[in-house]
Amino acid sequence: MPGAGAPAPGAPPACTLGLGLGLTAFRALYLDRLPAGVDQAAAAAVYDTLVRSLRQAVRVVVALGVLVALGGWLTGPGRWASAVRGFWREGLGGVRGYAGRLGLRLGPVGRFVHRSKAALCWTAVAGAVLALLLWSRPTALVVVGLALALLAVLAGLELLDDRPLDDRAPAAPPWGGAT
Question: Would you say residue 148 has pLDDT above 90?
Answer without folding.
Answer: yes
